[in-house]
Design brief:
The structure is a homodimer. The first copy, chain A, is of the alpha/beta class. Chain A folds into 2 domains: 2-121 and 301-317, 2-Layer Sandwich (Nucleotidyltransferase, domain 5); 127-296, ATPase, nucleotide binding domain (Nucleotidyltransferase, domain 5). Chain A is 35% helix and 21% strand. The first copy, chain A, has 8 helices and 13 strands. In chain A, a hairpin with a 5-residue loop joins strand 2 and strand 3. Chain A is globular. Chains A and B meet through helix 6 of A and helix 6 of B.
Chain lengths: 318, 318
């Protein structure tokens, strides 16, 4: 049976899984990325986890290759460059180093681009030629599919839309220091920042008046909205409005048929999606109105990143 | 000899030319678009002008097809839709109607996308896989090439970047009523509006204090800058700054290797290009810095639009 190794390198966890040609993850494991600050140790750990996963199968698979999703990855150079949330600094030639340990077909890509490729091969994007996959986690990531292909960019850094300048008022700073950058507003972190902002801006009573920023969790904001907390509801509306403006701008770029959303913020359901639909309809140019869908990811949440990474290899076996 | 008919439909002029496989326009003509408000009369006129051009050649060419560039054109549907500057209202099935008069391979495309295809086949984009062509005329048009292909969009309306919201202060309105839309600032018209704004904002003396908006021409603004007119210089700086912010945002989208500029505003030369380079370097995310070129079009100005339109057909003969 043909299988692909999918690896998702995150700031917190590294997830590894074995994925079949239908995007099904047969088995998976993970370890904490930060426990292996030296690249060589890290890659040894990845390799041994892969070996173990493969050995634990009840059959001997034919491994076609290894796909990797990672923040700040250049698909064209096989590197990770200046990743804010990883211990390895500067430009890391991770693909070249990993190939020294395990000689097989390998590809690496920005994690959001890998997610988009996953949707194209296995998820909601199967029958589409033009869509944008958006990951709304700690940050805001995007993978762009146009003309049925993933857009790479000149040296593999297309889709860094979290740092598009939205110039709202005096502009929050993103982690990269971009003033007014989108992900400072539209992400799980952005929503938390907006909970503070709304408390500063309005006098409404709220459960959040008793909770410090560091103790604030996304699920709690959804729950508060359910209970009618005015600050929570205003925060969702504000987030959705800025997100809608950004999606309207993105639509003018590649005119996607759909935005496919995934990540923590999407779990807030109608609180984010309903105002998002309303504002998007308002902000879209007439020529686009009624043509752009907002969809939730068709991939299973827990293994979505692994399956997306595996799509880098599966793409070449169709 | 193989030739392609290239047609550029503009609000003022319709330009028609015969283009060879090197993008050279052998002969051309034009007429005033508004003199033929009925579509049928217009297409008859186009056809007879084409016949005349072909008959006047010293040889009998093999016409491969006809490529058309037009505002608000949908490449996928062969239509022009809700074009603000054309007499035909609503959705015009122009390709279908023209084929009834002249049965040959035909394609239509947004004029800026056609220009991008022209640069890809014949101009500065020849050796590039990722670039964005920008036309800075009455409006702001863009054609996006990524992965070596022109990006069409879901139903052929990709690249409407003139209406991307830049939300500057209280936002100028574009012709489509988009508040803060890019082309309200960055276009020949936008520059004229900025000359007014700068007079309202600063007290500097200027030759423009004696010139009404309707009497204002782009060349004069360049000349005034040459002579040290403070309002003209401030207007160029302001235009370049907003344009740089937009290009920095666009870079985060498809990461082009270059922006290829054409149209009236580019004739202002260093007055727009020098501050543009300066601000772009300032606004680009670090990962893109030093990798994005600003180029002027490689096509001959007068026939660029015709050659771009012809590229729609030549693209299929390579």
């Amino acid at each position: 049976m043909d299988l692909v190794v999918g690896i998702d390198i995150g700031g917190t966890k590294t997830k590894i899984g074995l994925v079949d040609g239908n995007g099904k993850c047969l088995d998976q494991t993970f370890f904490r990325t930060r426990e292996y600050p030296k690249l060589d140790d890290y890659l040894e750990k990845v390799k041994s986890e892969c070996d173990e996963l493969i050995a634990s199968l009840e059959f001997t698979p034919n491994i076609l290759g290894c796909g990797i999703g990672a923040p700040n990855a250049s698909s064209k150079r096989g590197t990770i460059e200046n990743a804010a949330n990883l211990a390895w600094k500067g430009t890391v030639p991770i693909l070249g180093e990993f190939k020294k340990k395990w000689d097989m077909p390998m590809r690496i890509m920005n994690d959001a681009s890998a997610a988009a490729l996953g949707e194209l091969l296995f998820g909601r994007g199967k029958k589409m030629t033009d869509f944008i996959a958006i990951t709304l986690g700690t940050g805001f990531g995007a993978g762009i599919v146009a003309n049925g292909q993933l857009i790479d960019g000149y040296d593999g850094f297309a889709g860094e839309l979290g740092h598009v300048d939205m110039t709202i008022g005096d502009g929050r700073l993103t982690g990269l220091g971009v003033e007014g950058g989108l992900e400072a507003y539209v992400s799980a972190t952005g929503l938390k920042r907006t909970i503070l902002y709304m408390q500063s801006h309005y006098m409404d009573d709220s459960r959040f008046r008793g909770i410090a920023y560091n103790d604030l969790h996304g699920e709690e904001i959804t729950q508060a909205a359910e209970e009618g907390d005015a600050i929570a509801i205003k925060a969702f509306d504000y987030t959705a409005k800025i997100m809608a403006q950004a999606l309207a701008n993105f639509t003018a770029f590649t005119q996607p048929e759909a935005f496919i959303l995934m990540g923590g913020l999407v779990n807030s359901g109608k609180w984010i999606l309903e105002p998002l639909e309303k504002y998007l309809d308002q902000f879209l140019l007439q020529v686009y109105r009624g043509k752009v869908k907002i969809l939730e990811s068709g991939m299973e949440g827990k293994t979505a990143a692994i399956c997306g990474a595996s799509a880098l290899i599966w793409e070449n076996h169709r």
